[in-house]
């Protein structure tokens, strides 16, 4: 090791899903929405002019923050915007988890949480999901430095009950509880109605899944004014111009088209239900998904082999070589045609 390497910050990074750029593949590996963003988004992007790009964007992300505040019935001071919810979550860890006690999150969950904890030197303790992959409320009712719960959870897709989440939030008034609602629009029950009641609750959301804008990188947090002020203080100590002018315009246009949003959501939900039935017909067991993906295991065929065979067939799904879940595939919900191709490919492998 070179002498200078002693002073290098060494981290174990997050591994993002593959983004292959080959025509004709069926991409069901990163939970993107299979439908395009609302038509107004593309119009808004065409209208972004040279002047908007010549200048720095609005550091307050004012137009998007206002659109989100109106949409959720909150004030602008209760909304924080960032470059995807990864950015919002990273900023939230840095802001709120500055104590010495361990923060708590599930053992099987979004694999970025332990990476941020590692990066910032935040102590953490993973709480095991029960045998049915359910988050147990009682595991989160103890002295800790904070809590992060994704609802629905990833990669299981399962929902945590609202009463259990409220118990966690109410039971930990001395720390911040972050509920990561990346997939909430696909059928879960949001903690949003609890916001006026609990000053330690921060909700994080994204435009990447239900609003078909993963490529634009837009995420946001909702919380009381004090929490949002603290988040902004850290943001302005890090990078003041986060969202681009194009992202702000696209985000506002996406929020305005609620009819399109609801229509695409329903299509994804309908396809998810059909995909679940087809997978069951092929002998898979599927966890009860409230998200835009299904976590499935086959009793006779190793998940890793299925993953590799599907890839050879041009169908990308996600496989995690981790204890307890290494027999599962996480399969994003595609269009009906994409799901047909998946099922046809699986029929050849498992029937
Ligand atoms: N939270 C969860 C649970 C996720 O699965 C993801 C997507 N990988 C994110 C947050 C981050 O999504 P984005 O940065 O695209 O908003």
Q: What does this 3D model show about the protein?
A:
The strands form three sheets. The protein has a seven-stranded mixed β-sheet with strand order 2-8-7-6-5-3-4, with helices on both faces. A four-stranded antiparallel β-sheet has the order 9-10-13-12. With 351 residues, it is of the alpha/beta class. The longest helix has 24 residues, at 258-281. A hairpin with a 6-residue loop joins strand 9 and strand 10 (293-297). It contains eleven helices and 13 strands. The chain binds 4'-deoxy-4'-aminopyridoxal-5'-phosphate. The site of 4'-deoxy-4'-aminopyridoxal-5'-phosphate (PMP) has 12 residues, from helix 4.
Q: Identify low-pLDDT runs.
A: none
- What's the main sheet like? 7 strands, mixed
Number of domains: 2
CATH homologous superfamily of the largest domain - what is it?
Answer: Type I PLP-dependent aspartate aminotransferase-like (Major domain)
Bound molecules: 4'-deoxy-4'-aminopyridoxal-5'-phosphate
Quickly name the level 1 CATH class of the largest domain.
Alpha Beta
H-E string: EHHHEHEHEEHEEEHHHEEHEEEH
Structural class: alpha/beta
CATH topology of the largest domain: Aspartate Aminotransferase, domain 2
Radius of gyration: 21 Å
Termini gap: 52 Å
Mean pLDDT: 97
Helix content: 25-40%
Q: Which architecture of the largest domain per CATH? A: 3-Layer(aba) Sandwich
Strand order of the largest sheet: 2-8-7-6-5-3-4
Strand-residue fraction?
Answer: 5-15%
Give the CA-based shape: globular
The total of beta strands comes to 13
- Total of helices: 11
